[in-house]
Prior knowledge:
Elements: H1 2-20, E1 24-25, E2 42-48, E3 55-60, E4 82-84, E5 87-89, E6 96-100, E7 111-116, E8 126-128, E9 132-137, E10 140-142, E11 153-159, E12 170-174, E13 178-182, E14 197-201, E15 209-216, E16 223-224, E17 230-233, E18 241-243, H2 261-273, E19 277-281, E20 284-288, E21 302-304, E22 308-312, E23 318-322, E24 335-337, E25 339-344, E26 347-350, E27 364-366, H3 370-375, E28 386-392, E29 395-397, E30 401-405, E31 410-416, E32 419-421, E33 425-429, E34 442-448, E35 451-452, E36 458-459, E37 464-465, E38 467-471, E39 474-480, E40 483-485, E41 503-507, E42 513-519, E43 522-524, E44 534-539, E45 553-557, E46 560-563, E47 570-571, E48 574-575, E49 586-591, E50 598-606, E51 613-618, E52 631-635, E53 638-644, E54 647-649, E55 667-671, E56 674-675, E57 678-680, E58 683-687, E59 690-697, E60 709-711, E61 713-714, E62 717-719, E63 722-726, E64 738-744, E65 756-757, E66 760-762, E67 765-767, E68 777-785, E69 791-796, E70 799-801, E71 804-808, E72 824-827, E73 832-835, E74 838-840, E75 843-847, E76 849-851, E77 859-860
Parallel strand pairs: 10-17, 18-19, 19-22, 20-23, 21-24, 22-25, 23-26, 24-27, 25-28, 26-29, 27-30, 28-31, 29-32, 30-33, 31-34, 32-35, 33-38, 34-39, 35-40, 38-41, 39-42, 40-43, 41-44, 42-53, 43-54, 44-55, 53-56, 53-57, 54-58, 55-59, 56-61, 57-62, 58-63, 59-64, 61-65, 62-66, 63-67, 64-68, 65-69, 66-70, ...
Antiparallel strand pairs: 1-2, 2-6, 3-4, 3-7, 5-6, 7-8, 9-11, 11-14, 12-13, 12-15, 15-16, 15-17, 36-37, 45-46, 46-51, 47-48, 49-50, 49-52, 50-51, 59-60
Amino acid sequence: MALARFLALVTLFVGAGAVAAPPELYRRAAYESPVRGDPDDLLLLAGYGFSVDDIVVYRTVPDSAKLPSAPSEVPAYSSPEFGLAPIVSSADVPYSLTIKLPQNMRADQTYALWVRTVRGEWSKAVKINDARPLWISPAYVHASDSPASLARELKIVGRNLQPSPGQSTRIRLIGPQQFTGTALSDTGSSATLNSYVVRVPLPPRLAPGRYRIRVNRDGANWVDVEGQSLEVLPDRPPAAEFSVSDPRFGGCRPDDGADDTACIVRAAAAAKRAGGGAVYFGPGTWDLIDGSQPGLVAGEGIIVAAGVQLRGAGSALTRLQRHTEWNEHAATAAFTLVGHTLVTGFTFRDLQIYRPSDRAGPFFQLGEDFQRAASAPDASVDTAAVSDVVITRNTFDRPIVAIGGGGLPINRLFVTYNTFGAYNSALELGGNPYDMIHKYRIDDSVIDYNDFKPGSKLDLVHKTGTIASELGAGHRVDFSGNTADGTSTDYLYAPDDARGWRAAFFWNLNGNVEEVLVSQNTATCTGDKIGDGEAISFDNNTNTFAFHGAPTVVQATADSVAVSATLAARQNDRDVPVASYYVDHWLQIVGGPGLGEARKIIGYSTDPITHVTTFKVAPDWDVVPAPGQTRVAVGREFWQLYALDNQADNRKPLCQKSNRSRRAGGEIVLWAQSADTVIAGNRQYDSDGIFVQQAYVVPEHPCPDCTMQGFFQSFLEIRANVVDGEYDWTTDCSASGITAGVAAASWGNEAPPTVGFGVSISHNTIRHADAQHGGAIAQLDSWTAGPEPHRWPLSDNMIIDHNSIADIDGPRAVPLCGTSRPRIGIAFPDPAIAWRTVLYANSCKHVSMPVGGGGVDTVKVCPSSTPDSCECAQTPK
């Protein structure tokens, strides 16, 4: 009897311990944890193990470098320092709780939050509003100047970098010398940027060496920028000059119409033999005519060796023009830059009149063709990168492509203060999807303050035209202050050629796009030519997913996960090195415990007997995946991408609204999977608004080479944007507002995973703009709704709060495209695929139907703190 009683007690104790474990919260600063919260905001606390009877406690944090211990008691009342944050939705337990931050909390104050169970257990603390610097730009400066004509200042990019009340954000450099500076502040329409970017002027001179960077926003606590230091290089000595007109190189002269190619090749070779120098082109017009003569490389033109520069007398004085004959035998770049070079002071002109079907090399190619580089006797995958290229203060006059790539990875590229008037595209750096040897990357690069102007390309058959830029990867890339001026006719072949753009700024996933800043860019008339007309597009094109579907975890540890599924052996119709190809891909949890977590794969192995693949990830999981419950996807990722304070304008008479294929233009679109990404402070006029795709696509007919396509959104923040007007309000062929597409393939034997978790749409202003199926803010069935019964939590626990919606009234759009619906403020898809959405404090003025039908277990938080509530006053207006 005593033994039986003892075993019963042990069982009770173990069972109680299992039940009584406090919930685990996502708490790593850059990975899915709560980031910010203003008074009265809604906030998602995600993780695992939550219960409907939990409570949430907050407290001010005096030292943001430390995580405070749990309080000794539950507060009796709520004050600005200590209190309870009411839970407004527990519909998604055990995966999350949604709380409302009390109005008496202080803005920009760092707080700790805990979840306390009814049994008295406390979770570990998570912080909000604490400074989270992630990376810097530029990666280097010189002792007394900056690269690429940039101002002598340093950018620190991250979250919560705005100063606390009464304080200034300060930056400290610790290295060969110490420096502390106060950050500059952006105002007006760019004020949103202050939360994500701080700029600090650097002293006139810094001692060379490496510097640790620290940030302080509250006057007390300093936070390190981890994983990156500022490199200060010695000032560059004056480059030896090798003039193309020097008689020893052939006696070439400008303005004579003769081919100067041979002289340029000889001058570049002399500079190379001297260990470096500047090939100088004096004022006047120089000519490139024969692209097949000796000294050139087929397809790559004139090879500019490392350490050799190209210098003109200024873009208004020196013109280098490529003749039609240059591409007569084969598409050939004018120059190929292998790295460690500077190009400045030119107008580069292309004399060929291009047609949509023409092929020609770019004016500048970054790096050799990847296949030629890989076949070289001394080839090394580890060192095959194009590094330290600066292209600044030039004009590109009608090349087919101004700057293209050979497929090799790129490191420390600076493209600044140039004017581009390319026929097809100015920057074509999308990478080569058939290169299975080199991992495509663009690291520590700056593309700032360039003017992009459209060329004449218009292809009515393939529905394409001139695009400003395309980048296929990114890591610590600053893409800011650029203008895509669709009103310009400067580089059209004829005044009556089609104006505007096919699209402006485009990214694809030939490599990961991580820690990228896209800010303060302007794009006008992006829908005036043809096509989708995106102002800024983040696309899934060339992504490589590892599995046919979303397999279930069979084993997991704190830093690993294992699945029994076959890795795809082919991508883009090419064999891949399966044993290593998926290193640096991302593993995203799309169902079960750990839902929404995303981690980078740093290694993996496959058991030859069981065929189970175990992935090693970094950093560790906050919630360890659960065997038999958690589902995963592996692919490339947009992570810590910030699209901030950009402007897109398609209004008449500035633009023509002459899109020849659809009523579209000016969209900011995220058509790819992402984690911890922000779209904030952007302004769009007569545009397609903001569109985010959330979808799961599996092949209809399984095959060995087939993989799924994922558009998974984890902890995406869409905040403080202005969408004012629609491309064509009158017809249902036009769409705008802020839209989250929701979809999954309707075939297959398994339930589809969750495609959107932790998405927040808050503090945005939408006027006279709605989605194609209705809704200024809409979750839209953008394809099929998964297998029967078409009732799946594809979009889960979206938060929609503090948005201002106005002038969504009047008759339905004219049904030219067959999608006309009533005018709605906040809309849900007809199928049951948007679950547990939380609505609060949204304002609807002159809105025919504030909230539409649909949605599963939608939570409307009432009463509202704002007048003209959408969700708390359902009477038509």
